[in-house]
Amino acid sequence: TMEKTRQVYAAHIERMFTLAGRKDAKAAAANAMALETAIAKVQQADVVRRDPRKVYHRVDRIGLEKKLAPTFPWGDYLAKLNIPKVTAITVNDPPYYTAVGRLLDTEKPAVLRDYLTWTVLRDSASALGSAWVAEAHTMSKELAGVKEIPPRWRRCVNRVDNDLGELLGQAYVK
């Protein structure tokens, strides 16, 4: 059931914070889970995202900076992406950006820090030690029924493919 999956997920987040040495792992996990849930609630439904007319919204830069999420530092963000002079952007769901901007403005810094820490832990777990890999596997087991952790060589190949797939594939196309 969804409730069981949420409980497994919350416990998983707490264990990841514990592995990271956080003494307040339970509170940090609760913060991360609460913000992640709030973000999920403002996303478009899967059914809506299937309709191409409902996910194509061209927004000019001024509209992005003044209307969608005016407190988000778009100039800095776009500069870091090496597209500082972009004049228009396509967004899937304009209300999502407004809602996330509002969350960024209203959430306590500790909640934002815990959520961002969680995303780093989640995304880095497969590259860390065996305890991290084993803990990351608990969610694969719960969500996808993966029975065992793939051998290290397979995980390494998958990592290279994920990180360099397009670049690596170019050598074979030439």
Distance between the termini: 49 Å
How does the overall form come out from the CA principal axes?
globular
Report the strand count. 2
The assigned structural class equals: mainly alpha
User: In percent terms, what proportion of residues is strand?
Assistant: under 5%
Tell me the number of helical segments per DSSP (H or I, 4 or more residues long).
9
The parts where pLDDT drops under 50 for at least 5 residues are none
Q: State the strand order across the main sheet.
A: 1-2
> What is the element string, with H for helices and E for strands?
HHHEHHEHHHH
**Could you give a short account of the major beta sheet?**
2 strands, antiparallel
Report helical residue fraction: 55-70%
Report the average pLDDT across residues: 91
- The Cα radius of gyration reads 19 Å
Detailed description of the structure:
The protein has 9 helices and 2 strands, in the order H-H-H-E-H-H-E-H-H-H-H. It has a two-stranded antiparallel sheet. The chain is mainly alpha-helical.
Quick overview:
This protein is mainly α and 174 residues long. 69% of the residues lie in helices and 5% in strands. The protein has nine helices and two strands.
Short key terms for the protein model shown above:
single chain, 174 residues, mainly alpha, two-stranded antiparallel ribbon, 9 helices, 2 strands, 5% strand, globular
